[in-house]
Amino acid sequence: MVELQPVAGDRRQVAIGNLIIGGTRPAVIAGPCAVEPGYVEQAEALAGTGVDALRACVFKPRTRPDSFQGMGREALPLLEEARRRTGLPILTEVLCPQEAELLADLADGYQVGARNMQNFRLLEALGEMGRPVVLKRGFGATVEEWVAASEYLRGRGNDQVVLCERGIRTFEPRTRSTLDVSAVLVARDLTDLPVIVDPSHAAGQRRWVPALARAALAVGADGLLIEAHPTPTLSWSDADQTIGLDALARLVLEAQRGLGTTA
Ligand code: PEP
Ligand code: MN
Question: What is the mean pLDDT of the chain?
Answer without folding.
Answer: 96
